[in-house]
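Problem: given the chain below (339 residues), write out its structure.
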Amino acid sequence: MQTPVFVHMNAMRHDQADTMIYALGVDANTSGGYYLEQLWARRLDDRRFELCCIPLYIYGFALGDVVEVIRQEKLDVIERIVQTSGCITLRILFNANAKMVERNRIFQMLVEIGCQTEWSSKISKNLLAISVASDEQAQVVMHLLNQEQQSDRLTYESAVVDQIVTAGIESVGAKLPGAIFAHLNPIWQNEADFILQVPVSNPRNPGGYYLEHLWVKQLGNNRFSLCCIPFRLYDLALGDVVEVSQHGDGVTHDLKRISLSGQHTLRVWFGGSTHGKCRDILLVELDKLNCLVEWESNDLMATSAPSNREAQRVVDLLHQRQLEGCLVYETQHLFPSTC
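Solution.
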């Protein structure tokens, strides 16, 4: 079975984050099972990162901790903490009988105490992660939550117990994705309320397990509108409406496009370019053509053209830049994979 991946949509320090790292945890609900939590982070050097989100599932970590990672395939997986921030992570799981007005009331009380918070979902608001700055503040919060727990509205926990797998990752038997292509700055992030985890094929490794995390807005039970520009998936564009089915591992299967937005996806690879100013010049040119842009890395950019006319003008532009040796681009043909 594939290792489930849990994601954050509301990272507390989203504006400081510049990458995603991963924590491997033990799933207490399954015998010998594991999960990954995708964590927003700020890179300090090749191996050290500062956490920019409040852990929702993993234990032993807090907002602002500095961690060291090891490379697993294309994933940076936490190996150990090298400096604690002093923050403490608490978590609330609201029971089904807790009304939304009660959940919002408790949330507002925590904000007034001075806590930092993250919801696991913009839709359901069942799980709330809390970051407190000191032991004294933690005692105040836990006193409040003890009172609310007696009313059977919620259960809560402290996440200080270390249950993370920090060594011997190769030997635990967890089937990790070869790569996860994440969107740090989805174009319509404010409209998105869900993340689809979609398998990505890799012609260089047909048996590999890769995912792209698509930010979407839920329109119905199985229908979503894309709020990001796809980095790796084909025949999809910003604003398209898709219909999906999902399995128990949270991975999206049988994704089918049912409505076109009129946008067109193009991707640009700058790797190996000897033209230092090519990126800056191209961004200006794309802006003049009313195109939107997302970066997956320093080398890979996805752009969305708003109509057939602009798309053709972008193709003409990129073709010329490719002839000049500035870049490589694609429309619907297979892109040179870096996996």
